[in-house]
Amino acid sequence: MSREKTENWLKAASAIVIGFGLVMLLGTLPATSAPVAFLTDLIFWPVDGRQVVSAPETRLLWAISGGILTGWGLLLWQISTRLYPQDPSLARTLILSSIGIWFLADGLGSILAGAPLNAVLNIGFLLLFFVPLWRPIQRAEV
């Protein structure tokens, strides 16, 4: 994959992470919580409407999670646009280690919380970043 294509892919992946963070922030208000309510219901399969996301402590966790995810997405964007063009090897290391530890922690936490489907769905996010970075940049492209 060319540098330009990799950078564009990483920017799109970062935008998706930011988007998910913003959707999570919608869960903080009862009037806008339908997307996260559905997501929660989906993750705790089957989709049956039994999950409740309206408790204040749940809304607080949506706010914290959404804020962290939005900030992390912005950091990934900046690494992809500012560092990757200058030092692709360092950018690759930073992104893959960040995504890797997130994947392990989120997946394990999801399984322990009784939501193993979330761990499976996280593979999609992992692939968003792993696919363009799975091979180190070739010196010939530099």
From TrEMBL:
The keyword Membrane applies. The chain crosses the membrane at residues 12-40, 60-77, 89-105, 111-134. Keywords: Membrane, Transmembrane, Transmembrane helix. This is Excinuclease ABC subunit A. It comes from Denitrobaculum tricleocarpae.
